[in-house]
Amino acid sequence: MMPPIYEVKQHMRRIAALEEQKGKGAVCASIGPAGEQGVLFANVILGGARPGAAGRAGMGAVMGVKKLKAIVVSGRRRTRIADRQSLLKRIREKSATMKENTKLLTTYGTPFLVNVINAKGMLGTRNNSTEVFAHSQDISGERIKEKYWHKDTACFGCPVACGKNVHVIKGEYAGMTVKMPEYETLYAVGSMLDNRDIDSIINGNHACDLMGIDTISMGVTLSFVAECIEKGIISEKEIGEKVDFADGAAMVSLIKKTARKEGIGALLALGSARLAGKFGKDAYKYLYAVKGLEIAGHSARGLRGMSLSYSTSTRGGSHHDGRPNYAKEDPDPGFTPQPKYIQKSQYFTAVGDSLVLCRFIAERGLGTPLNEEIAKIVGYVTGWDITLAELERIGERIYNLERLINVTRGISRKDDTLPYRVMNEPIPEGPAKGRYCSKADLDALLDTFYALRGWDQNGIPTKEKLTELGLK
Ligand code: SF4
């Protein structure tokens, strides 16, 4: 185990210092103590004008094991645009629509989703035993804006400015201004933990940033452990400490212990999927993870598309492989349209990530999935005469390549699955009451999805498909 290179509280300061050293415009991506200690859900924290986190799937642990502490990027060369005039003209034409579609992001940032998703009855609550959180208003974007907002932050040149810094009023970091908890954090360490104490969430979010920990995996792991204790699968005595629902006061300490793998932290640092194996008995029934990755805050049983998306995502419980589409989920569209939608959505995210396109701008400004508008913009920037079909083919190549990486690590149909609760327990109350995805439904979805993709019945890309894509 590597000794921590930094003192914990210096993590954010070091990011700023490294950026300052490289001069104006430099941006630093750095792991924290959790990455150094090999916490499986350690992340990479980003500085710059709109601080954020490359949060999911343990990239901080990967950097840590390679003894890579930070990367600083700076440069002065102008980005070359093949057809700047057409690009600017198109951006001007689209700007009114984009402004209108991103209004809530500009005002509240992603936390505007808390009340919206709760009103649909799809906000994972108390380890997803229900999806209606009675106290959503207490942890909402509206509440943060009213009581905690300090200033907006934006990525270079972005008029949306969805980032927010907030004042910490109470708790460990009182008196500081810090990065706001995003929607996914409000879900994971808020509603999933049945925790209505917004001060504890703001402090917990900042503790995760200082330590370099993914807030989604942290919160969902805590809620899993809390339910296992509640159901008598494991006792506080056996794990050495209390982990309870609605206990915001304990959160910062549990996060710090996780980063240091100290006491109970050594267990929590494994994440919920490995803990389910360790706890045994019926622990698997309370797990909310796919392929070992805790599921994000877009309901795997309320959103029909996300049932298929999470199960086939190359990263597991990620909401950035296939995307939620709330507009099309109401009224209940059923499962039939989902394989085609998720296939296209996965092209969209694969291409968007390769272009380094902000998801919010792409979805709200250019539309989703991939479309003529996006193909045109790519053409203006690169000078390529690229069609929508060619762009989709790039998405297909990327997703197949990712799948092949999974396959070489033993992934197949048996892993394209969903948590027990999603497949066996319908949502018990609220507007989405009754929704779930049974094993039979999932099997039917997978059959259609694999056929569309040109994969065999075990979820392995066929030789013909790989030849067609030039990935032989
Ligand atoms: S909308 Fe996208 S580009 Fe703009 S500030 Fe937010 S994350 Fe950055």
Secondary-structure blueprint of this entry?
Elements: H1 11-22, E1 27-30, H2 33-37, E2 44-46, E3 52-54, H3 59-65, E4 70-73, H4 84-101, H5 103-108, H6 113-119, H7 141-147, E5 149-153, E6 163-167, E7 177-179, H8 183-188, H9 198-211, H10 215-230, H11 236-239, H12 251-260, H13 265-268, H14 272-279, E8 289-290, E9 293-294, H15 304-312, H16 338-355, H17 359-366, H18 372-382, H19 388-408, H20 420-424, H21 439-453, H22 463-468
Antiparallel strand pairs: 1-2, 1-4, 2-3, 5-6, 6-7, 8-9
The structure holds iron/sulfur cluster.
Residues 50, 154-155, 158, 160-163, 358, 360-361 line the site of iron/sulfur cluster.
What would your notes on this structure say?
With 472 residues, this protein is an alpha+beta fold. It folds into 3 domains: 8-73, no CATH class; 111-287, Aldehyde Ferredoxin Oxidoreductase Protein, subunit A, domain 2 (Orthogonal Bundle); 300-468, Orthogonal Bundle (Aldehyde Ferredoxin Oxidoreductase Protein, subunit A, domain 3). It is 46% helix and 7% strand. It is built from 22 helices and 9 strands. It has a 4-stranded antiparallel sheet. Helix 4 crosses helix 17, helix 9 runs parallel beside helix 12 and helix 15 (304-312) crosses helix 16 (338-355). 48% of the residues are buried. Bound molecules: iron/sulfur cluster. Iron/sulfur cluster binds at residues 50, 154-155, 158, 160-163, 358, 360-361.
